[in-house]
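User: If only I could read backbone structure tokens as easily as an amino acid sequence. Those tokens are not coordinates but codes from a learned vocabulary of shapes. Could you go through the record with me and say what the backbone is doing? Here is the record:
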Amino acid sequence: MSGPSRERIPTVVKLGGSCLDDLAESWWDDLARHGREHPLVLVHGWSRPLRELNPRYRDPSAILRDRYGNQSRWTTPEVIADIRTVSARLGEEVIGRLERYGITAERLLGSDGLVHAGEGERWWWRNKQLVELENLVGPITAVDPSRLKNLQPGHACLVTPLARDAEGREVNTDADRAAAALAAATGATDLVLVTDVAHLLIDGEPVSRIGARAAAEFRDKGATGGMRKKLRAAGEALDGGVDRVVIGSAPVTDLLAGRTGTVITRT
């Protein structure tokens, strides 16, 4: 079976929820210039907007860790509803910005048949105890790229990274890993993880370029928090056929050109 035609191969960009409000108009102008020549698949986070919606999301008890130390938001049906609320508002803002620069855009919920999730963890660390509880979070098992019907230059698909599990429940997923899965499924050569840090730092020093194996070693031994998740997503994207993953806070064209940020390659 042949892959997607070149003009339908997107650039996949994950927009961190903690930095969306801080992106300057020049950043969006730059993204639009890139998008006039390449289809865009944008995946947004929601961490800061969710915390601003309700103070309970700023409480440390809102965050769980699984048996392996991976961090997760404790997600109940009420949290899913709040995620939908903030993502709808974010969608309006992002689409409005893109359209001002001549890029048409549409919002898609991953849970509407685009992203599928498997069974989630049952045991979580909470208040320093390992307890069994229901957490509507699931690992991504499949992406149906046929749901992205308008992959063409001048158009952007903005994806809210919710998913649907085998029982038909709507579940939360990690936005970085969702972006990685979408990049692999669409045949993207590039995945850009836009965050609020300029580079990957190792021993306090910025890293401009690193191979997948070295990045995985640092992820397992030295990375913490959000960067650990980004490196895990980067590894999954590269394993799925993506050529390179770039992490940084600069305009997309600067990141893709290697002028700033950290480029992670297969070798």
Observations:
- The longest strand covers residues 104-109.
- DSSP finds seven helices and 18 strands in the chain.
- The two ends are 27 Å apart (CA to CA).
